[in-house]
Write a structure and sequence with these properties.
Strand content: under 5%
Radius of gyration: 17 Å
Order of helices and strands: HHHHHHHHH
Number of helices: 9
Structural class: mainly alpha
Helix content: over 70%
Largest sheet: none
Length: about 200
């Protein structure tokens, strides 16, 4: 199983940026995102926030993410994986930020505090990839791949408590949805070509 050049470049960028952040040569605050920053027009940070690993076990997160990505790319194609992770990473942030904004608007002090919480790391990319893995297993009737996706979902649960951290589960659902939607469209297109 091989990653595409673009996927390899993404994971190399994650490694380099993570090393720079951990060595102190680059501040996470220079690439992170938050609901407040998005409200201030810093939309590009929705993308840059996904090129660093937060927390312990960075090497394991990168290796597991690359392995899961390779499986999804081999089974569904690179374009489907990229669509899943972009929808998962950016979409989950937008939904979580909207929830935070609503919570702030109705007077939740914890939501208002969360609006400025730094949001960065590959966790939403990983969540979307795991969702894509589950959907690929379901779509193709592969119980082993589907089971890996389910195990990944339960692995995300302990890290998904909080206003911002809900992104992990949202990304999982968005990644799965993209694979199911695009997979059904490609199946329909193949069926149509065969009928001609």
């Amino acid at each position: 199983m091989a990653l595409t050049a673009a996927a390899i470049a993404y994971f190399v960028a994650v490694i380099v940026v993570t090393i720079l952040v951990r060595s102190g040569d680059l501040g996470a605050s220079e690439i992170d995102s938050s609901a407040d920053e998005l409200a201030d027009g810093q939309a590009l940070r929705l993308l840059t926030s996904g090129i660093v690993v937060e927390g312990p076990l960075a090497a394991w997160q990168i290796a597991f993410g690359a392995l899961a990505a390779a499986v999804v790319i081999r089974r569904e194609g690179a374009a489907v994986w990229w669509a899943a992770v972009l929808a998962g990473h950016v979409g989950s942030a937008l939904i979580a930020y909207a929830i935070i904004g609503f919570g702030s608007a109705v007077g939740s002090a914890s939501a208002e505090d969360a609006a400025n919480d730094p949001d960065y790391g590959i966790s939403a990319v990983l969540g979307a990839t795991l969702g894509a893995l589950l959907a690929s297993g379901l779509r193709r009737g592969d119980q082993v791949i589907g089971a890996l996706g389910i195990v990944g979902f339960f692995g995300l649960l302990p890290f998904s408590i909080g206003w911002v951290d809900i992104e992990h589960l949202l990304a999982f659902g968005l990644g799965a949805g993209v694979v199911l939607w695009l997979g059904s469209r490609s199946t329909d297109a193949r069926s149509l070509r065969r009928q001609r």
